[in-house]
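Task 17 of the worksheet. Students: predict the tertiary structure of the chain below and write it out as structure tokens. Keep your answer in the requested format; marks are given for formatting as well as content.
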Amino acid sequence: MPCDSDYFVRELDINSSDTQLHTLKLHQKSVGDVNCIVWDASIVLAKYLEVYNLKHPNFLVDVKVIELGSGVGCVGLTAALLGANVTLTDLPETITILNDNIAFNKDTINSSQGSVTARVLNWSDKLDISANDYQLIILSDCVYYSKSIKSLTQTLVELCGDSTEIIQSQEIRDTDKQKEIWNCYLQQLQMEFNVEEIPTSQQHMEFSCRDIKLLKITKK
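Model answer:
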């Protein structure tokens, strides 16, 4: 286990019902790459799952969920807290912090009906996961580099069965390059999927932002 100075903690309160409040403790690296901290887009998606669950109680109970590009695991751990059976995925160098955060939140997750594990998943590799293995795919702030667009889109195609739903959040950063990358990604995505933007009126009142897009995606 790294020394405490390597980490700092972000706490996130999640209401799993009208009467139950849980606190996730998300350990982040003080120094590291983009997959080492909690990004705003992941908070927006996590709080959307909370809001949706309050309106549709137990909608995630026993649902098999996979998160792509999990980072520190914010969204996937939230889904597990709401009753889902979650697989967190990322590159090999991220698995340690994912397993740490699973361990740090073990008691909180065990108090729900959910479960969570972590594994390596490189979008460029041949997948050993089949369509229909998961009912819900979640991902946040995964569109940064133009070279990853094709592999990410193909991974979604391969993982997505006829009844699989994808929920994606992405902060649209105010640079021409990032806007171009996002638009290119959307064009490729829409060749294979129906894409619907979730309005801020359906999101958490405090944890939503016009610069963070929240998408509901289904196979054509």
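Marker's comment: The chain has a mean pLDDT of 91. DSSP finds six helices and nine strands in the chain.
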